[in-house]
Amino acid sequence: MNTRTISGRLRGAAALALLPLLALTACGSGDTGGTAAVGAQASPVPTDDPVAAVRKVDSAAALLPAEVREAGRLKVGSSIGFPPGAYYPNGTDKAAAGQDIDLADAVAKVLGVELERQDASFETILPALGSGKYDFGTGNFGVTAERLKTVDFVTYINDGQGFAVKQGNTELKGKVTDLTQLCGLTIGTGAGTTFEATLTAQKGVCAKAGRKPYDVKVYSENAATLTALQQGRIDVIMSTINGLRHQAAQPASQTAFLGEFHRLDVGFAFKKGSPLTKAFQAAVDELIKDGTYTRILKKWGTSASAIDASRINPPEHT
Prior knowledge:
The protein is of the alpha/beta class. It is built from eleven helices and eight strands. The chain has a five-stranded mixed beta sheet with strand order 6-5-7-4-8, sandwiched between helices. Strands 2-1-3 form a three-stranded parallel beta sheet, with helices on both faces.
């Protein structure tokens, strides 16, 4: 084996080792986190701070239960995964950043309360709402008919489901519009997500079409999913539209975004019957009205996901 081959393999190993860091710390639209991939040009975390100017709005705060106004604090379970939603640009010992972080912080300021943020894995947050462990949850939670049976939502963006492949993939070249396009492939996705639910529910479509079924591999972290793609253990990733678009904008990720598959409203999640929903809806609407909302989405490159008004428990998009 010649030295050129050895050095090439070492460079490949180094790039793969950095993929988990890239997935958690790199951010597109002109902003990256504290760790750059090999050969990638680092750019600063966005410095715009739309939340700083937000002030309490008494009419919205008055919609909170009296005990919450008195305590002045709410517990939020946050899934800190990857940009642009929520991630750690400077390591887990530093503050989280992202669209979901800014929006939750801005809502809290409108309502005149402090947030006690607790990191939690995505799949554990919704079940924990009913026990009172968290007052609400964030994690790019899509509104689905199944979730509406046990969870209340207050919407703040419109995102949804999409697909991405490794650059140079020859099996999937265009937009995925039908899951039969995935027959015979291995799909990686997140645990407890709408993506996992969709893929599981439609598992029989390939057999009906007389084709080999697709296989689904579930990962608890986006970094593990990306690494699996780069190492060839999966053929395609199913995840959020905004997240995959952001990821593909990073040269070191070596992924190609295949476009939108299914749009979903995304919202703050609450236990069923929570008395907090009307206050949160009013707060989001205040942010939309005063322009803070537009600035936050522009900051994180997600303006295409903007909504005109917040809704409580809208029906799932069909």
